[in-house]
Amino acid sequence: xxxxxxxxxxxxxxxxxxxxxxxxxxxxxxxxxxxxxxxxxxxxxxxxxxxxxxxxxxxxxxxxxxxxxxxxxxxxxxxxxxxxxxxxxxxxxxxxxxxxxxxxxxxxxxxxxxxxxxxxxxxxxxxxxxxxxxxxxxxxxxxxxxxxxxxxxxxxxxxxxxxxxxxxxxxxxxxxxxxxxxxxxxxxxxxxxxxxxxxxxxxxxxxxxxxxxxxxxxxxxxxxxxxxxxxxxxxxxxxxxxxxxxxxxxxxxxxxxxx
Length: 259
Known about the structure:
The chain is α/β, with parallel strands linked by helices. It contains eleven helices and ten strands. It is globular, with a radius of gyration of 19 Å.
């Protein structure tokens, strides 16, 4: 049985990490997840992905230490997209929603941080406990200070303490807290809303955000104005751009084609 299952409905793909007992990720699972998200990225018919965990207790605790003890190398081949298949996936210009259904710690929290939006069940808990074993939470050290206030991110990284969904929401780490039995329904509701929107605009937003991380404001604005970003150039020469203007003028809902 595959540790990764998918459910496809229209333009939405649900990816479930289902590897009992705890949804920990070994090298093989990471490679399968990478292939799954690569296929999602490259499929023109798919617009939004939902990532969740199987069961009710664990979203993902991160790296499978038992597999490591059995020979999986920490610096082994994680596959396309890096650990968990998502956090280093290049040109992921489609929205990804994480539906955190339980414990998300270590690499599991880093995986959730790779999504654009995070929904959490009200019993979900989070931590970056790597510090306690003398290991660095490398991806979280890059991503967490960009998602929540710096001093809070540093506290969590330096202490490794656990925090609950309410605190995660308070600091802006998660978008919404949802009862467990409503978590996936809410994720699908949000995914359908996004899937009804303009995919070329989403792609442009994600590339602009990604490229602007190391750019000065005016430099980035100049690149956008000169259409030096692939997604921006594609958007402004697309049928969708004209359709948006026509639909507004005609006072109707636009029909997005993604081209």
